[in-house]
Queue: 2 jobs
Job 1
Amino acid sequence: MAEFLTSQSEDFSKWYNEIVQKADLADYSPVRGCMVIKPYGYTLWERIRDELDLRFKATGHVNAYFPLFIPMSFLEKESEHVEGFSPELAVVTHGGGSKLEEPLVVRPTSETIIGHMYAKWIQSYRDLPVLINQWANVVRWEMRTRLFLRTAEFLWQEGHTAHATREEAEEETQRMLQVYTDFCVKEAAIPVIPGRKSESEKFAGAVASYTIEAMMKDGKALQSGTSHFLGQNFAKAFDIQYLDENNERQYAWTTSWGVSTRMVGAVVMSHGDDQGLVLPPHLAPIQVVVVPIWRKAKEREAVLAAARDVKERLGKLVRVELDEREGLSPGWKYNDWEMRGVPVRVEIGPRDIKNQNVMVARRDIPGRDGKTIVPMSEIENRIPALLETVQNAIYQKAVDFRDGRIRDVERMDDFVEAIDDGFARAFWSGDREDEARLKEETKATVRCIPDDQPGGSGTCIYTGKPATEVAIFGKAY
Amino acid sequence: MAEFLTSQSEDFSKWYNEIVQKADLADYSPVRGCMVIKPYGYTLWERIRDELDLRFKATGHVNAYFPLFIPMSFLEKESEHVEGFSPELAVVTHGGGSKLEEPLVVRPTSETIIGHMYAKWIQSYRDLPVLINQWANVVRWEMRTRLFLRTAEFLWQEGHTAHATREEAEEETQRMLQVYTDFCVKEAAIPVIPGRKSESEKFAGAVASYTIEAMMKDGKALQSGTSHFLGQNFAKAFDIQYLDENNERQYAWTTSWGVSTRMVGAVVMSHGDDQGLVLPPHLAPIQVVVVPIWRKAKEREAVLAAARDVKERLGKLVRVELDEREGLSPGWKYNDWEMRGVPVRVEIGPRDIKNQNVMVARRDIPGRDGKTIVPMSEIENRIPALLETVQNAIYQKAVDFRDGRIRDVERMDDFVEAIDDGFARAFWSGDREDEARLKEETKATVRCIPDDQPGGSGTCIYTGKPATEVAIFGKAY
């Protein structure tokens, strides 16, 4: 249990690998680079999926499903796209006992196959916009993998939209970045920096890529969602044309945007501590755990009856579990649920029953400071309200942590210091090659050109050239 | 629209292929044997998924996710399993630009990889039962494919459970068959016959397979869900052992059970008619469509305002859509929504507004007989109630249809007549070879040995040997 968990300050990376397994989020699989998402981790993903899906539908999108396999020739139709993805492909060469005429790629992303279908479906301006999302598995053959953060197969959603005009497509790209930001802030309690990707970090085949960047508790950056403006690149490669109102043929403008099971890793590394996970109540598979406490056997029945009653009352309002396991001490159970990051624990013992109280403990505030006595009659009001308090507190803590580790710098030695445990913000006017050199020298990359700009102009931190934009730099997962 | 739809009596198979595409359920893909599930079809699948998922969770199951790829050697550990599936495998031989040391199979089903993980997770009787379900895509390289019914890639759920005793595992197998039956009857409005599969039709590697068989409107059978008792076959192949209460090592007993996107085909072929789909209200993506009607331009505003008001009021209770499309006649819209199988249509015109009424039409009863005038003030009560009425009526119609086409037969010429447009029920004591011959001679197979048995004994319809059980026979999809 908790005592065997490496502390974050000792080795953050080891802490991560341990907690993901100890908290039953995921396990390694016998297949190189693939993970097994265990029930607790999958339920967390289901919560993420459901919250995102609600937002997609509220912004007019519908779900559909496209084939897992893509003919190799499709990828080759967009030159940057195939160049970007070909080193990472898994290829099916045999089917039904025979060698295939054309090898099939296991989708690394679906712009190409969806582009092919859109060309068939879209004829007139009346067919636009097409606003489709897909929940699916994708495969990118990674050499160095880490559970949730980088796996050969992962689960994600990929939105693919087609529009009549450049403006509409650009609006869509921004809208979905905003949807992702809203989800991160309100549900995952993760503050993110929305902005534009630099040339070298943008999606293979995109005109422009946008990202939300989050800071993990080791100060490193995690790209948590991306939204791409694809211009007419894929429309031209797949011949997605429509007749406009003047009966003239036009190429459509397309976008794509995605969030993956990586988000589970973001939640773990944004909020977790040395006792284990700290889950935001909005996403926690179990929001409240009820732990019955007794010393003498004769107390057992009354305590369990009261605990079951509390569970049933709360069960109508929140996701609650009653820990009736036998042969485990209350202290052991506390550690166990703390490790799993359950936001609120309710303890009930003989004295609580006598006083018609329960003891309520917050996961995000360890020890006595996080404990409150709540009258049994008030649990329906107080516990759901407390979950909201915890949600906000976790978010605020993450904001404070991050803001304390973003430094505005003007000189390279300050830059290097800043990226050692956080982000640097500085004027930037480098090109692809400058970025590559900067990464080699410092291990930091341009995480994004943030939407939030100071304005004015300055000097590029790296090249010394005049610059009009600041960038956010950090070491990234 | 509807006028271009082949009638069921003319060519049922052609009717099916046409309606699946015309109603925007699915489309062919450029990848051999794979389908594209379009938004309307996918939403229907989401409804099926959600209803099943509720039932899985209510019976104590949790969701998880296992890798898409399975090492070829895993399949070979269970001899019947690999023999059954090897002709249908898609094989990945290259990853990340290199040839793989061991080829990976794209999962055709996941008993093997899950068995491997269970062997790792299960140590003691305290770890049992393990009750996990997975929603996933699977691939079986089929030569002759049909949208939803038989595709190389399909979506499904596969439950995989492990138990301490044979009895528990057998109970689980039956419980899940019952869950499937309940779903079909209450949500899909499809009557099914639950029963045991014959030797030659059982799952590769199972001790016994159970099925629910439905009759389509052409009298053919569609296997709609299966539940397998795997005995200790996979536990022995993957070494799933636990220490029992006496500290002795025992093999676990396992089950698996699945329902796939084939269920969409079952819904289409159980209820559809010459006008198109007839969707059961519980699963319909759109339960009610509101069609505004006006002739003169000056009527437009008032009609649209009333229609929007109706949509908003109903939107709190049911899944409703308002058809505001311009330039299409009401009649055209009626046909369009009928083709898509929307259970209830609400028509609003100037006269309805004057009388404070709406006209309500049922999809399942064509023409005037299905129309009722409903006071505007009563729509919140009447429309949801009407949806339940329609749900029950569709189910009853399917029961009556099926029951009229199941014939008890004792002679082969009656058998042949029965299976021409329905099912035959007859005493059966044949073996694998008898089944193969029967199929060759009549195209019919043993669909199941139904749970519901007349008792007593008789003479096998085919072999003439003494028999104690009746079987259901039919031509199958």
Job 2
Amino acid sequence: MRGFARRSTVAEAIGWLDSRVRRLGDERTALREAGGRVLAHDVASGVDVPGFVRAMMDGFAVRAADTIGASPYNRLPLNVVGESMPGRPFAGRAGPGLAVRIMTGAPLPEGADAVLPVELVEIQGDFIFAQGEVSPEKHIGRIGEDISAGSAVLSAGRRLRPQDIGVLSSIGAAEVVVVRRPRARIVVTGNELLPVGSQPAGARIVDSNGPMLEALVVRDGGLPIHPGIVPDEPGAILAALRSDADLVLVSGGSSVGQEDLAPSLLAEHGELAIHGLAMRPSRPTGMGMLDGRPVFLLPGNPVSCLCAYDFFAGRATRVLGGRSPEWPYRRLRASLKRKASSTIGRLDYLRVRCDGGLVEPLSIGGASLLSSTTRADGFVLIPEESEGYPAGTQVEVFLYD
Amino acid sequence: MRGFARRSTVAEAIGWLDSRVRRLGDERTALREAGGRVLAHDVASGVDVPGFVRAMMDGFAVRAADTIGASPYNRLPLNVVGESMPGRPFAGRAGPGLAVRIMTGAPLPEGADAVLPVELVEIQGDFIFAQGEVSPEKHIGRIGEDISAGSAVLSAGRRLRPQDIGVLSSIGAAEVVVVRRPRARIVVTGNELLPVGSQPAGARIVDSNGPMLEALVVRDGGLPIHPGIVPDEPGAILAALRSDADLVLVSGGSSVGQEDLAPSLLAEHGELAIHGLAMRPSRPTGMGMLDGRPVFLLPGNPVSCLCAYDFFAGRATRVLGGRSPEWPYRRLRASLKRKASSTIGRLDYLRVRCDGGLVEPLSIGGASLLSSTTRADGFVLIPEESEGYPAGTQVEVFLYD
């Protein structure tokens, strides 16, 4: 077995990736399905919201001038000539000496310029007695006070929040133009693998990387395509690498042994830009381009696969889909319960548990034990230039989930 | 218009909610669809993973005893009698003086007890020369070292992470039993409202709370049901309150005016447990039970609707679905750019922008301006017992999205 000619640093690999991976194009989607999607263009409003002057309190629409001098000791009568309800405006005109009963959100009748709150009024049949003054424009909402016609509402790149969907609905959007979801072809190789849903038997194990990668791609806003295990055979792997997708994630056969077919196929038919990384786990990770789409060669060991996905393939998925390249993990600062060792020149991805404010590195074996990542609460990175940290060091934990 | 008889504190309302809302029952789902779902039961493994002794390095399966004394100066010959590949084990037996070429992950042949790494070997035809020693069990993974049969794998209540899906796949799970997704009936009332996708026109505005609530429910793991605007009419509202769902979210008509039908319907036909809250916005929020399901009366003002959803209805959605009751918002500590005022006895929900490490309260009008929540980066809470904070105070910001 040959070794890697030269190991790239994580920063070099990310630099390459960022230079080659660009946001995908657009598609239209129904507004009601658009929560969490990424807006492709700036959105401006074509309308005023609200499109009419509205009451901001329950009370009576009046001319403010008619209330001048009103007080509990100087009750001024006004004739109630109708009502304005939300969606059912008063058909007539208010005017001097007149009042129109009005509810919050209802259109202010023509001729009125303020709302006299119900608390300042005594009602007697068709008359009210104003017991206080209101100034013009009092308790009314002006046209466009929420959103004015022509104004910018949301910017391109925005990941739509629930309230954004509400605002877009209020300006009359039925659809929105969003960044297309990246289609990620998952190519799982390995003659020892049984498809998800099988019982492990004899010398065969069940594919765990495939369904894990599917869930990771969904988490990062992509659409996974994983039609099944691909035989360890050059023609089958090359065909899978060339399948119609926006990026390709290969799991297994990524190292430099003679059974590791994917790197040489990628080098021969496309570009193997990075192969071998100065990190642990995930050293035998590769990446490159084929037919204009990024290809990630992820190690078959499941912990390495998870780690390499998160560092590289996940970043590509997020960037293609218009999301932030950053990890979706919450962060926590806490101190190490015991020493964490590393080697200079290599980035270490250390699974940890967080227990009572202390961070405990899990003393677990190799990258083959996926259960170590389900027992862990998250991970800590030890950068290339560090030999590790003594107990008590404050570290940043990236929390899984 | 009557006022609220008595305003409940936010803590009282949450206390009521937590006493009445319980996790829903279970359902089966395909493992590949289970990312992000909540596990209903503890899961133990029925199998060992791996189910066989495997090589952890590429090299040769040998009897460790045959390598005793091997060094570059004392090369010990072994006869290579076959190979063991992942999924394609060596059919025969290894034994004294014999070696079997083996790849990482492949089953260790009967008779061998260690893997001699390829780096410690010189290959000549059908023979290898060991140039170093290995001890028994060296470079092999034992049966069940990832997961042993009968051991606990994941606990009930776990929100399934991508790696959990991988682990469940590796133990042969085709389906998992998860907590059912809460079906949330969204009841939007208001004669002034047009359905989502309409253009606002005249005195009518487009429903923004409905699609916003749909996106919120999806975010919190629920299934929204929002078949359309419900007429402001007691029979229609009561029928909607009684529709088949796990919880009901009513938007609009939640206050104490005569047009506010939902509170009296709930009081008459079920239980109106809380009505009127000591908070701003969202004062006219109510909640109770009808036909055994929680009902939330959310104010029609969209900012109040968002806030009341997040405090109460969202919590219920998350708890019903087996998730943590806590907000899904990331948090940030930063200092106030300017003073934030409040009133003792009332919790304030203050929309803020975060700008260069400083938190700026948005000086924006009432709860009717939904665009204020799209311009904000998040919110700050000022508790009941506080009159507010001076500029420079360190506050916790809950970040939208």
